[in-house]
Write a structure and sequence with these properties.
Distance between the termini: 65 Å
Number of helices: 14
Radius of gyration: 18 Å
Oligomer: single chain
Order of helices and strands: HHEEEHEHEHEHHHHHHEHEHH
């Protein structure tokens, strides 16, 4: 019975239990814009900032970060309302609506708080948007960007995100959500479902099913539906840019990656055949190698 209740989000772990399960030895909490942000900082060397996407968390980068920390200082964080950061609440204690302007200010403020003066941004999906947005608005801070299956252009919402725009469903998530629906969504972002590790699946379910997180998702989806993300700004990105895309991405189509490659001057595009929306999880070895080669090429250009 308990397992059944857990699978519908009617029971679940406390925040302390989630911390015990999913925090890293490098985890810490940093106050930013009224929320305690879960941050991980590991390694030493040039700064590399990694930003996850919708419904994900900083541990989506685990395998890639394990390689990068050998040469760089890797900074990761959970965007609100996800992971161990959770939602931002208003004065009434309800999840606050989060728009593009909020996330822009949030990333600006957090990087300033962490004293990130010069870095490489690596982002996936909505984290890819936040990475190219940071590069475009703060060329003095971002010396290079790796954009993976990044959001930029107007497009139909993926089915599993579109559900949260339906008011009765958004309301229902405050009380329950079927675990099988989340499993289907996670499977949908992989090109090869056999590559989903059991521990990774369990972590996604654990963190998303946590009531404060899922209750707030309906207040975050507006970033994809309200107004523009500003794709017309892409041609003004000045830093060197590597674009990585999964050829079987069903959430942000490969054509979007090809358009981004055309719109960002001097960018490079790598298409991973047979891979879905989150290449850093599905093909972490190749993703990490491509990131290291890209970052090292920036250092060589500086020396030259």
């Amino acid at each position: 019975m308990k397992a059944l209740l857990n699978d519908f989000g009617l029971m679940g772990p406390s925040f302390e239990e989630l911390k015990q399960r999913h925090a890293l030895p490098s985890s810490r909490w940093v106050k930013c814009m009224g929320v305690n942000v879960h941050v991980s900082i590991e390694g030493s060397g040039p700064d590399v900032v990694m930003v996850h996407g919708f419904a994900a968390h900083l541990r989506t980068w685990d395998d890639v970060a394990a390689v990068l920390v050998k040469q760089y200082r890797v900074i990761r964080f959970d965007l609100p309302p996800f992971g161990l950061t959770g939602p931002l609440l208003d004065a009434q204690g309800e999840p606050r609506k989060l728009d593009v302007a909020f996330y822009q200010e949030f990333v600006d403020t957090l990087l300033d708080t962490l004293e990130i003066r010069k870095c490489v941004m690596i982002g996936n999906s909505f984290g890819g948007f936040l990475s190219w947005d940071q590069a475009q608005r703060h060329p003095e801070r971002v010396r290079g960007a790796v954009l993976s299956d990044a959001v930029a252009y107007q497009q139909p919402l993926p089915f599993y995100i579109q559900l949260f725009t339906i008011k009765p469903i958004a309301w229902l998530t405050k009380h329950t959500i079927p675990g099988f629906l989340l499993r289907m969504a996670i499977s949908d972002v992989y090109g090869d479902k056999s590559k989903i590790k059991p521990g990774v699946l369990a972590r996604y379910l654990d963190l998303f099913m946590y009531k404060p997180n899922r209750s707030a998702v309906g207040k975050m989806v507006g970033v994809f539906t309200d107004g523009e993300l500003g794709a017309e700004r892409l041609p003004s990105i000045q830093c060197k840019t590597l674009i990585i895309w999964g050829s079987d991405d069903r959430w942000v189509k490969p054509a979007m990656g090809e358009q981004m490659h055309k719109d960002i001057p001097g960018s490079e595009l790598k298409m991973y055949r047979g891979v879905g929306h989150i290449p850093m999880e599905e093909m972490p070895e190749r993703f990490a190698q491509d990131c290291v080669a890209f970052i090292e090429s920036l250092s060589m250009e500086t020396v030259a």
